[in-house]
Amino acid sequence: YGKLGVLLRLAGSSAPTLFAGTVFNTLSGAVTPLTLKFKSDMIRSLQRLDHEQVYSSFWSVIYIQFITMFIDNLSNRFTRKGADAVSQTLKRMVGKAIISQDLRYFDSVDKPNRCLRDAEDIEHDLVYQPQYVIKRAVSLVSNFVVAYEQSPDLLKLMAVILPVTNVIQALVVNWFRKSTKRQQRGRMNNDD
Fold first, then answer.
1. Separation of alpha carbons 3 and 21, rounded Å
2. Gyration radius of the chain over CA positions
3. Overall pTM surpassing 0.85 (yes/no)
């Protein structure tokens, strides 16, 4: 709760906007697995040669895809607006801290723009990480509900497979994020 309080103070008047982005992001995680359900219904209908049900399931997949894209767009818009407010507040705080330093401080600092990079990293950790965790948790539960509706045996199988794939995905995303940061820092060091 302490970090949430810090985030809300940094977001200031944009806190409701950031909250709306988080809600839409979570909703997207809950709705996305419905696509799998409708695709599964469509395949079953094809197997039974029930053309009317195939048609209905096909349009359901299309509708869910559009709804998901719309929700994702809303999530991105609201989150970006709230994150910009957090970023501006952090950069103002960093700027004030830098200005208040004694001139000898700048002789000992290798890269003064590191403070601004750190502010951007903090913004990412405060805004996007919690959203990602919440969305993945809701998506996992939603996947389990859809799987159970399809077959209790499928739920048992997914109870083993989904957590493993989520861990693998998180490791890959974390690796990409770290390698991207290293590349960006390497380019910044070359520019300086």
1. 18
2. 22
3. no
